[in-house]
Design brief:
The chain is α/β, with parallel strands linked by helices. It has 14 helices and 18 strands. Strand 16, helix 14 and strand 17 form a beta-alpha-beta unit. Helix 1 packs parallel to helix 9, helix 2 packs across helix 4 and helix 7 packs across helix 8. About 10% of the residues have low confidence.
């Protein structure tokens, strides 16, 4: 159902595994080259590794404790005071690390983020802890006890795997990234399960491991990379590496075209609290299976090979499928489960006459259907006393904030308006979340 992708923003997540490409005498046959690995950002300098190492000393850790909850507005004042007693470079490194830890709390949780170490790219591009934990659980359920984590970054996935009782070889070719990953493994008490190796992933022998996990870099010098063959390493190489292992998982961009997915892979799209985080190609599991997994839960919807749903008039209820369901092209499965159809052949909204709660879509009780007309909507909202207005759009060029400014909602009541198309015509659907209790 690729035609239902209209209006869905790509939530591609990228990880930069920065480093200098170094040619070695030969590549281990287990993961032979399928072509040259793309150059990434320049490798970390010895000075940057040394500066980071200073944070691991007693003095560095004491400074980190002192600046843990530093207010950004007070950074200059605090830094000036601390530089009277500590090296300026160490003070700057500690304050920078405190800032990164504060940013990382949303992704790793405050408890872990407050102890871990980060790089700017590591905070931005690491897997969210909830997603990494879920994936590690899948590996454990498959009987995997050892994983080669290739392009491992600062160790977010390695940490989740180790906590699932899996021993991990974490490979990255950037010296600073490896130093941070080692520090994280030790800080979290997982050093016995995580070996960090600074190396080119294409030259690592993974033959002794139960599974391979590859998270290619999907950001180049000019920003995000959308061509899977422009990943570093390219997707074709990663697929080849996966096929040599008993089990494997490849992290890819959620917007990857379905036609590029290998026939022998299982494709899974994962969302967390409704936000699509990533897609994963699994090998050695269920070839050809397509699934959407929603966290927390997890809850997984598996494709049943259904044809596109029929278009039908808008009924009492509107269902908004989760982003992972849409990315996985499983809107037809949701439509069948709720006994509904599409409001438009190109829009991923499902409508039905009965309320059938499903974890894979949010249900709304539709009270009004209007042709697109701001004045009519404004009059309707005023009549209903709507001051709390949620605006959603799919298949409309109108921005939600623009509409809110024009209608100026006022009053004690709330409503949701959908800017969309119904049978090709610009339409506004007004309603509220359906009571599913």
């Amino acid at each position: 159902m690729s035609h239902l992708m209209h209006g869905v923003a790509s939530c591609q997540r990228r990880r930069r595994a920065a480093g200098r490409h170094r040619r070695r005498a030969r590549a281990i046959h287990r993961l032979a080259h399928n072509g040259p690995v793309n150059d990434r950002a320049p490798a970390a300098s010895a000075d940057s590794v040394s500066a980071f190492s200073a944070l691991l000393t007693d003095e560095g850790r004491a400074l980190l404790d002192e600046v843990r909850d530093i207010d950004p507005a007070q950074e200059l004042t605090v830094a000036t005071r601390l530089r009277r007693e500590h090296p300026a470079a160490l003070v700057s490194a500690a304050i920078g690390q405190a800032r990164l830890r504060q940013r990382a709390a949303a992704k790793f949780g405050a408890a872990d983020a407050g102890r871990m170490f980060f790089t700017p790219n590591g905070v931005e591009q690491s897997t969210r802890a909830s997603v990494a934990t879920y994936r590690a659980g899948r590996f454990a359920d498959l009987g995997v006890r050892s994983v080669a984590d290739l392009c491992s970054g600062i160790g977010g996935d390695a940490i989740a795997l180790a906590r699932a009782g899996i021993s991990v070889l974490a490979v990255d070719r950037d010296p600073l990234t490896c130093a941070v990953a080692r520090a994280n493994a030790e800080t979290l008490g997982l050093g016995g399960l995580i070996e960090v190796r600074e190396a080119d992933v294409t030259e690592v022998d993974t033959g002794s491991y139960d599974a391979v996990f590859v998270d290619p870099a999907r950001r180049g010098g000019r920003g995000r990379v959308f061509d899977p063959e422009a990943y570093s390493p390219p997707l074709s190489w990663a697929v080849g590496a996966a096929r040599t292992a008993p089990r494997a998982a490849l992290k890819i961009a959620p917007g990857i075209p379905h036609e590029t997915i290998p026939a022998d892979a299982e494709a899974e799209w994962i969302s967390d609290h409704g936000d699509v985080k990533e897609a994963v190609l699994w090998f050695g599991t269920e070839p050809g299976t397509v699934r959407a997994t929603l966290l927390p839960g997890p809850r997984s919807l598996t494709g049943r090979g259904l044809p596109d749903p029929a278009v039908r008039p808008v009924g009492r209820y509107l269902y908004e499928p989760d982003g992972a369901v849409i990315r996985a092209h499983l809107v037809a499965e949701v439509a069948e489960d709720v006994g509904g159809g599409l409001i438009d052949e190109t829009i991923a909204y499902v409508t039905a006459d009965e309320l059938r709660p499903t974890p894979y879509a949010a249900a709304y009780d539709i009270t009004d259907q209007l042709p697109f007309n701001v004045k009519r909507l404004k009059a309707l909202l005023r009549e209903r006393g709507v001051g709390i207005l949620t605006v959603k759009k799919r298949g409309s060029a109108v921005e939600p904030e623009e509409l809110r400014r024009k209608v100026r909602p006022q009053g004690p009541n709330s409503a949701t308006v959908f800017l969309t198309r119904v049978a090709g015509a610009p339409t506004m659907l007004v309603g509220h979340p359906a009571a599913t209790g």
